[in-house]
Specification:
By secondary structure, this protein is an alpha+beta fold. It is built from 4 helices and 5 strands; from the N terminus they run ββαβαβαβα. The longest helix has 18 residues. The radius of gyration is 19 Å and the shape is extended. 11% of the residues are buried.
Amino acid sequence: MIVFDLACTQEHVFEAWFGSTADYDKQRERGLVSCPICGDADVRKAAMAPAVPAKSNARPVPMAKGAPAPAEMKAMLAALARAQAKALEGSEHVGGRFAEEARAMHDGETPERAIHGQATLAEAKALVEDGVPVAPLPLPIVPPDVSH
């Protein structure tokens, strides 16, 4: 079993358990996943911290002075995920084909459009050296959804 933090379009965040990631994807596609607060069936995975079990001999680590509480950190990550999603609205996720797609647009081989994806450091340097307009983005807070 796997637990996901999910969020609806109204930004209600809730947990749901699934047999696997594939089970979640299938149930979401069939409209079987909905927000328990408002009933919205348009849900997506929300940011969540990984669950790492503590060693049995480990002592609790005190929180750093001024560090946000776990609930506050969760809320901050959710806000960051919402900002990331808003920034990527209308942008096509091209995955590992980013350098190829950016170069093709720059060379006029394909129509220009907003894209995002991954490039190696060498690919990114080559794009910059060739005058292809690119900018680095932070690592995804939420993995790209196929709807992007």
